[in-house]
Amino acid sequence: MARRIVLTMLALIGALLVSTVVPLGLITTGHERASFKEDTVFSAGGVASFAEGTLADHGSGSSLARALARARRAGEQVRVYDIRGRVAAGNGGDGMAVPTATLGRVLGGGDTVATGIGDRLRVVVPVRNDDGVGIVGAVVLARPTTRLDQRLRTLWLWLAAVAITGLLAATVTAIALARWVGQPLNALDGTAQRLGGGALDARSVTGHGPPEVRRLARHFNAMAGRLETLVHGNRAAMADVSHQLRTPLTALRLRLDLLAQDADPATADELTGAQEEVSRLSRLVDGLLAVARAENVLVKPVPIAVDAVIRDRATAWRPVAEERAVVLKQDCPGPIRAMVGADHLEQILDNLLANALDAVPSGGHVEVSASSNGDGIQVVVADDGPGMSAMQQAQAFRRFGTTAPGGAGLGLAIVHRLATSNGGCAALSDTPGGGLTVTLDLPAAPGPGGS
Q1: Burial class for 109, CB neighbours closer than 10 Å (0-12, 13-18, 19+)
Q2: Do 288 and 308 fall within a single domain?
Q3: Which of 54, 57, 103, 386 is the most buried (most CB within 10 A)?
């Protein structure tokens, strides 16, 4: 945003300067050139007034000679023609010849002619009688444009300096404005990222930037405070309730075990069913504690060797798979590295493999694979079990969202929480041929094996 503010202001100021400085320079240049031309014509007219006495009255020409001398000292070259087009006087200099057509037009009663020749401006003015009607000759005066060109260069240099100074001032102002607006927003963005990453105590600075940004920071802090209170209250209540339930459940299980030892067969069967319900309730309590711990985690991503973790967890779960006559395979051409929290990938795979082995019947298959897709790391756990319907898949990541007998419905909730807290995501889909596929997208670690 800061870059856009700076570029926008520079573009506006640049357009304003161009639309102001360039026309001003052109207008001033035109005025200077017109003034120079008028002054040159006036000087030629002054020489023409002295030349009239010589050409018309056949005077001595001393006044004309003095005028020609002054013109020479001023750097002007002058030549006087009579009515027949012959040179009557002059102060020297080459390049003063006038085209016959131009001279004839002026001697024939035409107006003054001004043309540029090299670094000089040449004007041809008629020499008129005292009555102002008859023409007795013409004066050609060439004045150097060196001083004019120097003044115009100075003018354009000053205008360029003004434009550059304006742009520099606009740049400094734009950068200061961008920092004034952008830095509080960047700080607020960083705070929002920390809050989203689990740092519920993250707060934004409220004393910098425009009033709108300061007000936004105050509202954000108020929202973060309420969110922290709600989340901590919810987590604490869940953890406390789950922890308090474990002790009476353990005592209840022990009492049922004692009663079952001396009970008759019919009573023993009922007590066995009660023990199974107590075991299910214990698993539910353990799952709630696991969810509370997963939701209370503040992720500090570290580079993890995904291929090594997959091999380790597949080796750990292979005896369970063999006991249930399920084929557990792995496919992970290494090395593949992801940025996740310590032990998080192990927890994710343990929950997914436990769910898959519980769902797949004897003779089934479970496969764990990983690959790098350029933007991140993808971990896939696929089985050929009964799978899930579309509705079940939509609810599977919610707490207690299970249809498995005796299941707590918390395993996939833990997987989803750990995946999202690491900046990734989890998705469910049907395995080709039947079954369920869980796909995890995780951020890749920098360097070889990452994206």
Answers
A1: exposed
A2: no
A3: 54
Q: Are 255 and 384 part of one and the same domain?
A: no
| Separation between Cα atoms, residue 324 and residue 342, nearest integer Å | 30
Please tell me whether residues 291 and 306 are part of one structural domain: no
Spatial contact of 392 and 403, defined as CB atoms under 8 Å apart = yes
Report, as an integer, the average pLDDT of 27-42. 91
Query: Are 104 and 38 contacting, i.e. CB atoms less than 8 angstroms apart?
Result: no
**Rounded-to-integer distance, Cα 36 and Cα 152, Å:** 12
H helices of 296-330, where? 306-323
Taking 90 as the threshold, does the pLDDT of residue 27 lie above it?
yes
Return the SS3 of 432: coil
Q: Indicate whether 329 and 420 sit together in one domain.
A: yes
- Domains identified in the chain, total number: 3
Geometric angle at alpha carbon 421, from 415 and 422, rounded to 5°? 95
pLDDT at 96: 67
Helices (H), 263-379: 265-295, 306-323, 344-359
Cis status of the peptide bond prior to 210, with omega within 30 of 0 = no
Q: 23 phi and psi, to 5 degrees?
A: -60, -40
End position of a domain, from candidates 116, 144, 172: 144
Residue-wise pLDDT for 97-133, tens only, equals 778 888 888 888 778 888 877 788 888 889 888 766 6
In this structure, is residue 268 part of a structural domain? yes
In a domain, 259, yes or no: yes
Work out whether strand 337-340 and strand 302-305 pair parallel, antiparallel, or are unpaired.
antiparallel
CA 50 to chain centre: 75
Q: Is the predicted pLDDT of residue 403 greater than 60, yes or no?
A: no
Q: Work out the angle at residue 29's Cα, subtended by the Cα atoms of residues 25 and 32, and round it to the nearest 5 degrees.
A: 140
**Alpha carbon separation from 268 to 168, 250, 271, 336, 406 (Å, rounded):** 92, 19, 5, 53, 20
What's the CATH number where 260 sits? Answer: 1.10.287.130
CA 348 vs. chain centroid, Å, equals 35
Residue 19 placed within a domain: no
Cα–Cα distance measured from residue 104 to residue 99, given in angstroms and rounded to the nearest whole number: 9
Beta bridge partners of 113: 124
Are residues 204 and 221 in contact, defined by beta-carbon separation less than 8 angstroms?
Answer: yes
Residue 197, in any domain of the structure: no
d(CA 365, CA 385): 8
CATH number for the domain that contains residue 317:
3.30.565.10
Same structural domain, 340 and 414: yes
Per-residue H/E/C for 338-402:
EEECCCHHHHHHHHHHHHHHHHCCCCCEEEEEEEECCCCEEEEEEECCCCCCHHHHHHCCCCCCC
Report residue 236 as tokens: 């604490």
Question: Which helix H or strand E contains 105, and what residues bound it?
Answer: helix 100-107
Shared domain check, 437 and 387: yes
Three-state secondary-structure class, residue 336: coil
